[in-house]
Amino acid sequence: MQGTLSVWLAKRGLVHRSLGFDYQGIETLQIKPEDWHSIAVILYVYGYNYLRSQCAYDVAPGGLLASVYHLTRIEYGVNQAEEVCIKVFTHRSNPRIPSVFWVWKRITYDSHPRLKRILMPESWIGWPLRKDYIAPNFYEIQDAY
């Protein structure tokens, strides 16, 4: 089942895939990484002017990685804001998604001059939130006092 945004994008020949609706009734769309730049600008111009949240997750062990964008269309005088969820999948072997930090400020991916870890020390080797991560076989001894 397609939502109103999916129909709107299809009428304009914009490549995407409808993933249906989440439990809150928010339309979810899949966009290819190579189309993400242009569709991000189109969504912003269309009125999705607020990036409510952005996250990434590991789809399955050895499978794809996903970047998820929850966009909101905020308009003056409208009580119920329109929302959409965009998912951009990328291959684990080369996990790259074009950055749209210039559309919704503070989003960073490729070519960011100061991209750094926020949950792990910079010296940590590997990506422990990925499903294919193998934990190192050691334990750190902590001082109790």
pLDDT averaged over residues: 83
CATH topology of the domain at 4-90: Beta Polymerase, domain 2
End-to-end separation in angstroms reads 59 Å
The CATH homologous superfamily of the domain at 4-90 is called NADH:ubiquinone oxidoreductase Nqo5 subunit
Instruction: Examine the secondary-structure arrangement and name the CATH architecture of the domain at 4-90.
Output: 2-Layer Sandwich
Beta-strand segment tally: 5
Number of helices: 2
Class by alpha and beta content: alpha+beta
What does the model show?
With 145 residues, the protein is α+β, with helices and mostly antiparallel strands. It has helices at 4-11, 33-46, and strands at 17-21, 27-30, 50-58, 65-73, 82-90. The protein has a domain at 4-90: Beta Polymerase, domain 2. The chain is built from two helices and five strands; from the N terminus they run αββαβββ. The chain has a five-stranded mixed sheet, covered by helices on one side. A hairpin with a 5-residue loop joins strand 1 (17-21) and strand 2 (27-30). The longest helix has 14 residues, at 33-46. The chain starts with a helix and ends in a 55-residue tail after the last strand. Belongs to the complex I 30 kDa subunit family. GO terms for molecular function: NADH dehydrogenase (ubiquinone) activity. InterPro entries: NADH_quin_OxRdtase_su_C/D-like, NADH_UbQ_OxRdtase_30kDa_su.
